[in-house]
Amino acid sequence: AELLGINPDDRKDFRRWSLGCMLALNPFRTPEQTALYEESTTVLAAYLAREVDIRRSKPSDDLITRLAQAEEEGDSLTTQDIVLLIRLLLIAGNSTTTDMLTAGVAQLLKNPDQLAKFRARPDLHDNAMDEILRVEPPVSQVLRSAHEDMQVHDKQIKKGDTIHMSLFGVHFDPEMNPDPLSFDIERKNVQHFAFGGGAHYCLGAGLGKAQAKIALPMLFNRFPDLAFAPGREVKHKVAPAFNGYSELWLVK
Ligand code: HEM
Fold this sequence. Notes:
This protein has about 250 residues and is mainly alpha-helical. It folds into two domains: about 80 residues, no CATH class; about 160 residues, CATH 1.10.630.10. It contains eight helices and ten strands. A hairpin with a 2-residue loop joins strand 4 and strand 5. Helix 1 crosses helix 2 and helix 6 crosses helix 8. The radius of gyration is 21 Å and the shape is globular. The structure holds protoporphyrin IX containing FE.
């Protein structure tokens, strides 16, 4: 919201609408969730279109202004283009980072020896982020279309086929990561595709990792006795192709 230049007074509504838009990804929505999703996308689109119009007449130092001013070979973005781009940014950047943080908390609390190392050795934080993304990829499946016939191990793939790749499957392949079930923040050469690959490699990879690298040490420093809340079940989200927690209760 800050990068886009959203008025701080509107952030609460903005977060609610952006969470509402993400319900698009849940095929098991209840009727109430569908109503929230429809309301959120409509209200957010109108809100953003207004913001774009304001920036067109009164530029400011933010991403919406940059998008409104962007021009290449005489071509520029319409207000609708910008609204859709921002919605993509919100959906792509919101649940993923939240889920990475939650997964980091859960994995470190489940593995006290790793948490002790994480607290004592800030030099391991970067590697720890990759290990968290390996064992709990927030996006658990990526899609590709085959541009030509190909053979992958014993599978014949035809030109035009859609391929669904499970990142859990890849990340837990012992040929890629030996002893894959163990969560080891000192693992050498962590291999993961949590940000995809190729031309569509995640635009926010640096930002996503930076957020977790700041937030996780801050959280564990501020609450040294952080622990799972007794008697509370950890619940996973229901969202195909995404991996995250819907409930993770803690005590400080
Ligand atoms: C830990 C956090 C994140 C994870 C795990 C993640 C994961 C992914 C994955 C798996 C893809 C698909 C890549 C592919 O198909 O090869 C993707 C694409 C994308 N991500 Fe992220 N993402 C994260 C954070 C963010 C953030 C913070 C933003 C924006 C602020 C963002 C914006 C995008 C966009 C725009 C795309 C589409 C890129 C394209 O199709 O060219 N992501 N992300």
